[in-house]
Write a structure and sequence with these properties.
By secondary structure, the protein is α+β, with helices and mostly antiparallel strands. The protein contains 3 helices and 10 strands; from the N terminus they run αβββαβββββαββ. The strands form 2 sheets. Strands 1, 2, 4, 7 and 10 form a 5-stranded antiparallel beta sheet that branches.
Length: 173
């Protein structure tokens, strides 16, 4: 009996210790403003690249949190592009979206396996594995890179997509 009481007391003490050391985190869903994902012409058949940069401060993203904002986890929830309405547009095949910040490697975050048509909105398949996103958010500047296949021989104008990325970010104060 004494042994069972001693074990129960030890277990209760261990549980109390675990809860006192746990970290409180909070999840936030953040959507970028509409970014200009731009490929500068002339463009030629095959692989071409468009880029967009998003600059922000953690204080602007999380105005209700205190000073020392720590990013625990981050992941991309959705990626959407839309072709500009009324803009002349070349024939474009699939697109891969990657992201890069100052202290991270290029990370693939999404794939669109469709031919892109003018005046349409597209949602990407989000990558299952997403590396170093919490570091990228902490860097406060992210460059999105869209690699796409142009299906025409040549196109001498710029190509601009509207890009919006939604992230789930877990913070700790």
């Amino acid at each position: 009996m004494y042994h069972n009481l001693k074990m129960a007391g030890s277990s209760l003490l261990l549980i109390c210790f675990m809860f006192s050391c746990s970290v409180n985190t909070e999840k936030h869903e953040i959507t970028t403003p509409v970014l200009d994902l731009k490929a500068v012409g002339p463009l030629f058949e095959g692989s071409n690249t468009a880029t967009a940069t998003w600059e922000f401060t953690l204080e602007d993203l999380f105005p209700n949190l205190e000073e020392n904002i720590k990013i625990e986890k981050a992941k991309v929830k959705s990626i959407q592009i839309q072709t500009r309405e009324g803009m002349d547009f070349p024939k474009i095949g699939k697109m891969v979206i990657e992201m890069k910040s100052k202290y991270t490697d290029m990370t693939k975050i999404g794939l669109l396996d469709d031919n892109i048509q003018p005046n349409k909105k597209y949602t990407f398949q989000v990558a299952d594995e997403q590396e170093d996103l919490q570091t990228a958010i902490s860097d406060e500047r992210i460059t999105f890179v869209g690699d796409f296949d142009m299906l025409e021989d040549e196109y001498y104008e710029d190509v601009i997509f509207d890009l919006q990325v939604t992230l789930e970010i877990e913070t700790r104060n």
